[in-house]
TrEMBL record:
Residues 12-83 form the PAR14-like first RRM domain. Transmembrane segments: none annotated. It comes from Synaphobranchus kaupii. InterPro entries: Nucleotide-bd_a/b_plait_sf, PARP14_RPM_1. This is PAR14-like first RRM domain-containing protein. It comes from the Eukaryota.
Length: 97
């Protein structure tokens, strides 16, 4: 459930209109890795040429944002992830807290 992951970051992904096979799974693994991305527990949503990664913890999101370059290895090279936007706490937006 997305409300369990209120701290989101959206990245533009350089794969065009056809994302590589298993990209959602690769993004999930990458952003769950503290070593690779600074990330942690998360969920990934794909929309066109963008990926929204939602984290349970604000601290984890801040670690991901602190890392300047995010690249993901795919079958035909690497995909660069460029920060599009940082969403405020979804729970606060929904409940007005």
């Amino acid at each position: 459930m997305m409300e369990d992951y209120p701290y989101a970051v959206t990245f533009a992904c350089e794969w065009g209109s056809n994302p590589p096979k298993a990209i959602k799974n690769k993004l999930q693994i990458y952003f769950q890795s503290k070593k690779k991305s600074g990330g942690g527990d998360c969920q990934v949503e794909l929309t066109g040429g963008a990926a929204t990664v939602s984290f349970k913890s604000k601290d984890v999101r801040e670690r991901v944002l602190a890392k300047e370059d995010h690249e993901l290895a795919v079958e035909n090279g690497k995909v660069k992830l460029r920060l599009l936007r940082r969403e405020e706490n979804r729970e606060e937006a929904v409940h007005g807290a």
